[in-house]
Amino acid sequence: MNSELLWVLTLLLIAIVLFTTNKVRMDVVALLVIIAFVLSGTLTLSEATVGFSDPNVLLIAALFVIGEGLVRTGVAYQMGDWLVRVAGNSETKMLAWLMLSVAGLGAFMSSTGVVAIFIPVVLSVAARMKTSPGRLMMPLGFAGLISGMMTLVATPPNMIVNSELVREGLRGFDFFSITPIGILVLLAGVVYMLIARRWLGGTAHQTVDKRYHRTFRDLIRDYKLSGRARRLAVRQGSPLMGHTLDELGLRAGYGANVIGIERWRKFRRVMMAATGDMELQERDVLLVDMSDSDIDLRQFCRDQQLEPMVLRGEYFSEQSREVGMAEVSVIPESDLLGQSLRGMKFRTRYGLNVVGIRRNGKALEGKLVDEPLLLGDTLLVIGDWKLIRALKTKTPDFIVLNLPLEVESAAPAASQAPHALFCLALMVAMMLTNEIPNFIAALVACLLMGKFRCIDMESAYRAIHWPSLILIVGMMPFALALQKTGGIDLIVRGLMDVAGNMGPRVMLVCLFVLCAVIGLFISNTATAVLMAPIAIAAANGMSVSPLPFAMIIGVAASAAFMTPVSSPVNTLVLGPGGYRFADFLKLGIPFTLIVMGISVAIIPLLFPF
Hints:
single chain; 10 strands; transmembrane; transmembrane helix
């Protein structure tokens, strides 16, 4: 082993450790890798940055935009509504149709995005069926991962493997080359989950509302808000008048969190969501959350010249046109994890107020503003519906888990849904011809979605998950560096020593296991970048076709079922499903073995050695 190879392997080990500990953002690690390769002289600048011009990176970016267009036009949510109608009150039907729907939709858009869309659907269905969300969340996550095996563009690993084949001068895969494998795995997954669901879920979900969506009343009960809110009118001469909420610092000084302000407008009171720059006026009525306060309310009212007013049980529902309420969760990759609401300046940044936090299924009590956010926490936010929707569609740090019954159901571009479906169908048709490059087909669909007003430019740019793209770009130099320094030859020789004399099917098993093990520590995208050239080199060493070896890497990279950190999809369902780490091991390991068995049996039939 030469010194250059030792340096590359050391750098790879450092990157894996950083990915595993999550102390440094994955995209930052990827950029540091590029810098290290160039400064050390291992790669030239053009070699280290080749990923920025890779067509597959651009294709992935375009597919993020296509997925956002399907969300904004309501196509994805309509599929969720259809699912509820078809399944009715049958948990068996719901599980089967849920997995089929998620896998079908995920074949054309980000699996993480699809799962994020269906989480509130599953929560609502579980509430209506009076069952635990845990019995459906794991099937949802598994279906999201299986969707990566449905089409060539369903997940980045497929496109990375195909790109490596093309780079080696081979023809590569067609749009539906992987689909037969994905269909078999999906059917096996449905049967497996129908059997394994008995080990999922604990106590039934608390919500017993018979309607499809939960209501404000349900959220108030679940987050134990009853008795915490107060209505306080600003009287003449109050020292609060003429000052903004940020200037007054009521939450920091008194533990009084103003979450709404009633103000006279045209002979009637109008509820306004409270923001830090709002200036208080005489006759304003403040809706205040006093859960963080340990002061005497009557003394506080005397000091600030406030008058307590009646707060009836239906108050929030009556104000639902102006002020909204929703449950949200921090995404796994966000750097907001570990920060407190005060530290991240939540209200100033997002214009919304957090009035409740649930952790491990229980509502937290005490001073929430200084509570560090942990993975799996759900937050109850109150504020303007537009800002809640912005948090849902434009903010990369949060997903909205549940929108209550009071929310308007229309999507921002719902009238353009037929156009969005047309753009999607056109893109698939162009890709199937094999005459038009996949990126050009996706770019045409993106531009048409803009033309038909399915999506605007701001939403399009926000839809692109830049950390994922930077991760791919930063990991690509590893494959080239390993090739230049002899690392790939060393790994292939090791594989040949172990399985070279046992036939290509045994080599497929070895590649699958190696890919699955590496995927426990780094993302499936990074795993595919590293393993694709190794698989092709192993095929060349055995003098067989590289196609089945490349395909096994694509399938294995998507088979990240074993831990909640193997994929963002798993992490998303961890909190809402109420799962533990052991739940993923218990269900994920057997199903990964099933997927391996299907792959090793079917792939050589589709792509002969």
